[in-house]
Here is the input.
Amino acid sequence: MFYKDYSHWIREQFPFRVQKISVDAAFSCPNRDGRLSLGGCTFCDNKTFNPSYCDRGKSITQQLEEGKAFFAKKYPEMKYLAYFQAYSNTYAPLEELKRKYEEALAVDNVVGLVIGTRPDCVSDEALDYLQQLNQRTFLIVEYGIESANDNTLRRINRGHTFDCSRQAIIKAHQRGIITCGHIILGLPGEDEEEMLHQASTISQLPLDILKLHQLQIIKGTPLAKEYEAHPFHVFSAEEYVNLVIRYVSQLRNDLVLERFVSQSPPNMVIAPKWGLKNHEFTDLLNKRIRELGYDHR
Here is the structure.
């Protein structure tokens, strides 16, 4: 196939169906608590991806049980991965990390963890613990890379360099941990040539999984103010389909691609307004791949 699909890959990891359940474990972020910044990344609003059962006012156990109830209606035999998604989920003392991860793993039918974090928030001590955890449960560590261009990272107030991402990914890989990277395509200041060059750079990292998202301008964010004051280009769905095909063609064949788009609540999005669900976009992408004769590399 033109790309290695996550849904097929994850089915190969388990003898049963699994579903991620998002958890807000009340972690913070150095870009919000003042260690680096108070404003956060210019594009970020965590409310755009937290489902209704994901509420830091509830315990991790309660969030997972409510998430299980939500999904069990359709798939009663489902097993689950606790997805520590909101903010930076290794940004705490090690004992706190252990307590929260172990609470999630103690919930019935939770068979693994997916831990989303920043590359500058994972200590060697935490990675050593995650290496031990990886020996007894399924584990993915997901790093927000966002861009391979340091100028872009400064512009979006990311607070770390690309080399920081590179080193964090290498350290996780060396410990045998399945490692995922997150990239945003369409960040201000990056043209298509820059993004395609980035694809080759990303492909050289020892990543197992990659998530691509289109840039979305979310109401109330610093990026929204920048966009309203000085509008910059955002992709149409057709433009983005073509970019993704060219981007993926630069990636190595064994890299698992989990997502191509992000779908925020429509009332929060200033641009682009595609009116497409994630699966509808993927259907368009696969249709275009077939039309171009790219089913096989």
